[in-house]
Amino acid sequence: MSALGELRQLKGQAKAENRETKTAYLFLAPWFLGLFVITIGPLLASLYLAFTDYNLIQAPGWIGFDNFTRMIGDPRLHQSLKVTFLYVFISVPLQLLLALALAVLLDRGMRGLAFYRSVFYLPSLLGSSVAIAVLWRQMFGTQGLVNQVLALVGLEGRGWISDPSTALSTIIILNVWTFGAPMVIFLAGLRQIPRMYYEAASTEGASRWRQFVSITLPLLTPIIFFNLVLQLIGAFQSFTQAFVVSGGTGGPSDSTLFYTLYLYQRGFSNFDMGYASAMAWLLVLIIGIFTAINFYASKWWVFYDD
Questions:
Q1: Do 133 and 240 meet the contact criterion of CB atoms below 8 Å apart?
Q2: What is the pLDDT of residues 100-114, one digit of tens each?
């Protein structure tokens, strides 16, 4: 083939690749539109509003760092942080422990595995919905199902949601109950562990508990880390359960005043959108710090089977 022919062939290939590239960008255009209009645009707008006094009616006025300095003397914000941290650091470990225990149980190859897996996963699909939150509020009400069951065994119930000492616990139980998603991920991770490790350990006389501690847990640490990061971020962003169960008020003595709920109150009840935007960026900072801590600490306890 002559040099001229090769040049024409290269030009033809370049034109074809150019057409394919334009076609790819055309199909990606809706995604890019959503990224800039729905995600990046509002994100930058909220960053600007965090430094303004904005009430949703009048034009925002620049006030600098005043919204952030106001947080230092805001007792309800401090209470919301306390409630949120308690919720996150209690419910997430309990949820992961329950999910892991059930995943290990289901991994033994019990009959009807697909059915049980679906049943256990169902709460994760419904747990963040308004309907389940309303049902939970009815269950733990003064005349709810929990008190009716206690009455059958001669125990006196209480207003679990109206009592400041137990109100947060009811929402923690609701979050622990939605263990289905991490359980399915744990189950997938368990299925990837080679059986030969267990066979070799059994030959050496290792008990089931020793096999779990020495084989299962180390090889499952990447999955544990993945679930931990996801559930931690999700727990910090919890809103629906607290809003519905507490009636949007934060519960008795602000015992269920989640950070996101207080942010909603300041932005859409008090129309203090500038302060609410500053709170939103503080939440981003908190989530970022804890996520970074998890990634930094993972090098000491997460093991990869290379």
A1: yes
A2: 999 998 887 666 666
